[in-house]
Amino acid sequence: MESRARQVLELYGYQEVRTPLIEDSAVFTRSLGSAEEIVTKQMYLFQDRGGREVALRPEGTASVVRALIERGLDKTGGLTRLYYLGPMFRAERPQAGRRRQFHQLGVEVFGSASPYQDAEVLALLTRLLREAGAGAAVLKINNIGCRQDRPEMVKRLKEYFKGHLDHLCQECKLRLEKNPLRIFDCKQERCRSIAHESNKPSQWACGGCREHFDKARQALDLLGIPYEVDHQIVRGLDYYTRTVFEAVHEGLGAQNAIGAGGRYDDLVGQMGGEPVPAVGFALGLERILMAQEQEAKVSVSSAKRPQVFVATVSPAEIPKGLALAEALREKGIACVNNVDDRPLKRQLEQAEKWGCVLVAIQGEAERSKKVVTVKQMAARAQTEVPEDQWVEKVKELLAG
Ligand code: HAM
């Protein structure tokens, strides 16, 4: 899945960035919002030997922004398109689809405020999910306005939710004080229906933000990318502005977001860089695997299988077997060779188990004739091929 994803990312001109697993905790506390759950409850925080407070990265965006600024890429005036693949850590209670160590594939684009950049990023997300066999996911998008819109939005939402205070859960009562937008994220049925009845946060977005959202939607329509506008999508991190989105795969249970992201036009400036606009998303790879299994209705094995097994008839021949296998690898043919003193029958059983298509053997008898025996597992047929042509013959048989 990862190697296929890399190919898709390259189609769109993204380059890989690798950030450290451990960073100064301020990288996250300052960017994600100090009141956010991910910071208050889910970060693995500890002091290193030098007494510095560090954190295991809970997500990738903050680290990528930190790296961007440190490298001066925020000052180039151009577009920077980056992706990352790797483990993230959140101290949440584990359940189906929620792990303490999980893997994200993330994408971040810096330097464009265009709504068409949002559309392109969503096209990439859609293609990645389709290629991964999770194309049944539903893309939900929303407009949460810009920083200037936020005070009015928060004020109006506070007024509305205060009228329903008695029916909100404990957590949402706190959210009401800190960030009422987050009430839309609550999983409790009662809070959800109260939020559902509220005015759409997007109605307090300014003209510029509305126009931005409309243009992004028009581009999605033009590209034929299906989506739903869902005003309950507000995202759990502080840094978002304007377009936000989630890809949801029905049937994964409570943790059904397989990817999410949005625009974050203020974050680079807030973290000390040039105020370059940005947009990105991250996919949860474990959840994609779950979705994949659901769609295929079978367990998907992603490991690339060796195609050829090089067997040996006596222990003394094992080094020669190694040389035969290396000759195949030299030509890009995946193979495994026997290295243990095991009877041929056992070796063939192993080859069968791995799904090898061919088995190659060169024992004493073959060596004196300068040939290699090539067995076709499925057809239960075998041929002797001259030593100087056997690699070509293997290639031919595999292609045919
Ligand atoms: P996020 O929504 O926190 O966003 O995570 C993105 C995805 O990671 C989720 O949709 C989910 O699939 C997966 N995920 C999150 N937590 C877990 C977990 N505990 N176990 C398994 N999978 C999980 C971000 O992280 C943002 N940095 C995305 C972004 C990039 N926004 C802009 N750029």
How are the elements arranged and paired?
Layout: H1 2-11, E1 15-16, E2 22-24, H2 26-32, H3 37-40, E3 45-47, E4 53-56, H4 61-70, E5 80-89, E6 101-110, H5 115-131, E7 138-143, H6 150-162, H7 170-178, H8 189-197, H9 207-223, E8 228-229, E9 241-248, E10 257-263, H10 267-270, E11 278-284, H11 285-296, E12 308-311, H12 318-330, E13 335-337, H13 344-354, E14 358-361, H14 364-369, E15 371-376, E16 381-386, H15 390-399
Parallel strand pairs: 1-5, 7-8, 12-13, 12-14
Antiparallel strand pairs: 2-4, 3-4, 5-6, 6-11, 7-9, 9-10, 10-11, 14-15, 15-16
Helix pairs in contact: 1-5, 5-9
This protein binds histidyl-adenosine monophosphate.
Q: If you had to describe this structure to a student in words, what would you say it looks like?
A:
The chain is of the alpha+beta class and 400 residues long. It folds into 3 domains: 2-134 and 236-292, Bira Bifunctional Protein, Domain 2 (BirA Bifunctional Protein, domain 2, 2-Layer Sandwich); 150-202, no CATH class; 308-399, Anticodon-binding domain (Rossmann fold). It is built from 15 helices and 16 strands. The chain has helices spanning 2-11, 26-32, 37-40, 61-70, 115-131, 150-162, 170-178, 189-197, 207-223, 267-270, 285-296, 318-330, 344-354, 364-369, 390-399, and strands at 15-16, 22-24, 45-47, 53-56, 80-89, 101-110, 138-143, 228-229, 241-248, 257-263, 278-284, 308-311, 335-337, 358-361, 371-376, 381-386. The strands form 3 sheets. It has an 8-stranded mixed β-sheet. It has a 5-stranded mixed β-sheet with strand order 13-12-14-15-16, sandwiched between helices. It has a 3-stranded antiparallel β-sheet with strand order 2-4-3, covered by helices on one side. Strand 12 (308-311), helix 12 (318-330) and strand 13 (335-337) form a beta-alpha-beta unit. Helix 1 (2-11) runs antiparallel to helix 5 (115-131) and helix 5 (115-131) packs parallel to helix 9 (207-223). It is elongated and about 90 Å long. The protein binds histidyl-adenosine monophosphate.
